[in-house]
Amino acid sequence: MFFVKTKVRLFLLSWILGALLSPAWALTVTVSIPPLAGMIAPLLGEDDQINVLLKTEVSPHGFQLRPSHLRTIQNSELVVSVGSSVDYWVNNPVESMSKRHIRMMDVAGVQVLPLRSAGLWSEQDHDGHRHGDEPHEIRDTHQTVDGHIWLSVENAKALVRAVSLQLQALRPEQSAAIKQRTVQWLAQISQTDAEVNTLLMPVKQQPYLVLHDAFQYFEQRYQLNGVGAIRLSPDLPTSLKRIHQLRERIKAGKVVCVFKEPQFSTKRLRSVTSGLDVKVGQLDPMGQFMTQKSPAPYVLYDQFLKQMGQAFVDCLAGR
C-alpha cells in the first residue's frame, strides 16, 4: 500500500512539474502521417510540440488507432490530416472530440488527380502526364481520387499557408513571427523544388514501374516516365495476367527500374522481376529510411523532396 501511494504521489508530482515547466503559450499540434509534420514543423516555435500518430515504419493502410493515440489527439489544439483514404482512421475520433482539424484534401488550392489503374498505364495517360496536363480539382469519393496528395509541392505549399493562418488564429500575439517563418519556409520549399527538378533532368525519359501507384503527384510535377504499377492497392492481389504483362514489358527492355516500398512485402515485386535484367530501387512515401539520421520521427519536407528525387536518380541513371 505504501508503494502504491508513493507511485501516485510521484506521478502527480511529475505531472505538476511538467505543467509548470511547459510554457502556457506553447502549442500542441498532431498530424496523421510523418510527411505532414515535415511540412508544418518549421512554422512552430521552439516551445511548441508536434506529434505524429503513424510511425514511419508502419503502413497507413489498415492502421488502427490505440488509446494512446486518442489521448494524443485529445491533448492537441490542432489536428492536421491528409483527408483521403490514406488516413481515414483519424476522422471519427477528431470529429467526436470537436478538435480543430485541417484536412489537406479540403484546403483551398489543393488539387487532386484521379486514381489510375494497376498494370501498364495507357499511352494516353502516359503522354498526358509527360506533357504536364494540369491536375484538376475533384471532391469525390476516396474510390476515384489518388490520396497521396502530399507528394505535390504545390499542395504542400497550400497546406503550409492554411496551417499558418490557423496557428495565427490560435496565437494572435505570435502572428508576426509565424508569418515570417511561413514566408521563409515557402521560399525554401520553392528553392528545393527547383533543385530537385534539375537533379531529375537527366533521367526524366527513363521508364520505370512502381509497387503501387503512390507517386503520381511527384511524377507529374517533374515529368517522370512512370509506365505502370504492380498493384493498385497494397491490400489487393496481383493477377497472373498482370504479372505476365509487366514481365513482358521488362523483357522488351522498356523498363529500367522497378521500385519497392519499405512498408510492404516484396513478394509480388519479386514475381515480376525474378530472373530478369532490371534494377530494383526503393521509394519511400512516408520517409521511413529518411528518419534514420533525424532526431525527430519525420524529416523536413525539403529534405523529403531531395531524398525522393535522389532515390529516382540512383535507380534510373546509368542505363
Strand content: 5-15%
Q: Which CATH class of the domain at 202-316 applies here?
A: Alpha Beta
- Rg, Cα atoms, Å: 22 Å
Residue-averaged pLDDT, rounded?
85
- CATH superfamily name of the domain at 202-316? Nitrogenase molybdenum iron protein domain
Helix content: 40-55%
CATH overall fold name of the domain at 202-316:
Rossmann fold
Ends distance: 71 Å
Number of strands: 9
Strand order of the largest sheet: 5-7-6-8-9
Shape field: globular
Strand and helix layout:
Layout: H1 2-21, E1 28-31, H2 34-40, E2 49-52, H3 67-74, E3 78-81, H4 91-96, E4 101-103, E5 119-120, H5 123-130, H6 153-170, H7 175-200, E6 207-212, H8 216-221, E7 225-231, H9 240-251, E8 257-260, H10 267-273, E9 279-282, H11 301-316
Helix pairs in contact: 6-7, 7-11
Explained architecture:
With 319 residues, the chain is an alpha/beta fold. It has a domain at 202-316: 3-Layer(aba) Sandwich (Rossmann fold), CATH 3.40.50. It is built from 11 helices and 9 strands. The protein has helices at residues 2-21, 34-40, 67-74, 91-96, 123-130, 153-170, 175-200, 216-221, 240-251, 267-273, 301-316; strands at 28-31, 49-52, 78-81, 101-103, 119-120, 207-212, 225-231, 257-260, 279-282. The strands form 2 sheets. A 5-stranded mixed β-sheet has the order 5-7-6-8-9, sandwiched between helices. A 4-stranded parallel β-sheet has the order 2-1-3-4. Strand 3 (78-81), helix 4 and strand 4 form a beta-alpha-beta unit. Helix 6 packs antiparallel against helix 7 (175-200) and helix 7 (175-200) packs parallel to helix 11.
